[in-house]
Amino acid sequence: MAILKPKEITERSGVTVLILQRGDNDGTLKAYCTPMLKVLFLMKQLLKEVMDNQVDTIFIT
């Protein structure tokens, strides 16, 4: 079994990262990720939502 990065999957299949995220969230795709990569991925998604004005306030604890 080959392990591909999301970018490699999107380039090979033509699907977007959003579709991969949805598949991971609803369980139709099985994603393997190290804890640090998961944190970076979530931070990137959060920043995108902030830049798209979908988030008003961020609380850091």
Count of helical regions: 3
User: Taking all residues together, what is the mean pLDDT?
Assistant: 76
Number of strands: 0
Helix fraction by DSSP (H/I, runs of at least 4): 55-70%
H/E series: HHH
- Structure class: mainly alpha
Indicate the radius of gyration in whole angstroms. Answer: 13 Å
Give the biggest sheet: none
Poorly predicted regions = none
Q: How large a portion of the residues is in β-strands, by DSSP E? A: under 5%
Amino- and carboxy-terminal Cα gap: 39 Å
**Globular, elongated, flat, extended or rod-shaped: what is the shape?**
globular
Your description of this structure?
- The chain has three helices and no strands.
- The chain is mostly helical and 61 residues long.
- The longest helix has 17 residues.
- The termini are far apart.
- The mean pLDDT is 76.
Question: Can I get a quick summary?
Answer:
With 61 residues, this protein is mostly helical.
Structural key phrases:
single chain; 61 residues; mainly alpha; 0% strand
Secondary-structure map with pairings?
Blueprint: H1 6-13, H2 17-26, H3 35-51
